[in-house]
Amino acid sequence: MTAEEIARRSADAMWARDDASKWLGMSLDAVGPGTATTSFTVEKHHTNGHDICHGGYIFTLADSAFAFACNSYNQLAVAQHNTISFLRPGKLGERLTAEAKELTRAGRSGVYDVTVTNGEGKVVATFRGASRVIDGKHFEEET
Q1: Looking at the record's lineage, which domain of life comes first (predicted)?
Q2: Binning pLDDT at 50, 70 and 90, where does residue 141 land?
Q3: Is residue 138 part of a domain?
């Protein structure tokens, strides 16, 4: 299997069980080795008391892109820690897109940056996640 095929099969296995991302209205738009893109449209139920997208939903969007990127090698990976900086609001009706890119992997640890943009391509938030590989695989590879 190619690295692209492994990334896609890993993502398909995760997406099948990812009820939280689906409930949010998210889509998994792209995946590759160490990369992933997720998105959703800000709807009324995503807004807070300022009538903008709640930061928790933006964090979830970024965290899901991070999760698919760090799980793209058919190894189960979980978050060790992550941070987010909110730079501008997500507005009602906007399509927010989170693009995750791997910075490095060493042993069982990885570091990923995620950029969340709005429909105009402006940066809404930046997210950095650290992953840790645990026991298990998403699917059995054929030998």
Answers
A1: Bacteria
A2: confident
A3: no
Judge whether 94 and 44 are in contact, CB under 8 Å: no
Q: pLDDT averaged over the chain?
A: 96
Is 20 contained in some domain? yes
Q: Could you tell me the two tokens for 55?
A: 């930061």
Q: Name the band, by pLDDT with cuts 50, 70 and 90, for residue 142.
A: confident
Give this prediction's pTM: 0.95
Structural domain includes residue 32: yes
Q: How many domains does the chain have?
A: 1
Residues 112 and 131: beta-carbon distance below 8 Å: yes
For 14, what's the count of Cα atoms within 13 Å in the CB-facing half-sphere? 29
CATH assignment of the domain containing 58:
3.10.129.10
Q: Which amino acid is at 24?
A: L
CA 16-33-136 angle, 5° bins: 55
Distance CA 70, CA 65 (A): 9
Percent of the chain surpassing pLDDT 70: 99
The domain in which residue 105 lies consists of: 3-133
Residue 140 in domain: no
